[in-house]
Amino acid sequence: MSEYLAAHIQERLAARAHELGIKVEVRDDVVYLHGQVASVEQCRQIEEAARVAAEGRRVCNEVSVVPVREPGGEERLS
Length: 78
Hints:
This protein has two helices and three strands; from the N terminus they run αββαβ. The chain is α+β, with helices and mostly antiparallel strands. It has a three-stranded mixed sheet. α1 (2-17) packs across α2 (40-53).
């Protein structure tokens, strides 16, 4: 059952939060989310989508926000 629920939540994350790189684990009726995103807003959307799909189970959001930085300077091509 936990594998089915994890797959269901993963599908929901792809459809609602447009996120494919989040790992979902279900242990002892708790849903754990792992991975990295570029913004706090993405993190919030992932948690919200997971809560809807988790059907009342506790969601532990362990997703990290890692801001994407613009490259510094010019890139030279040879």
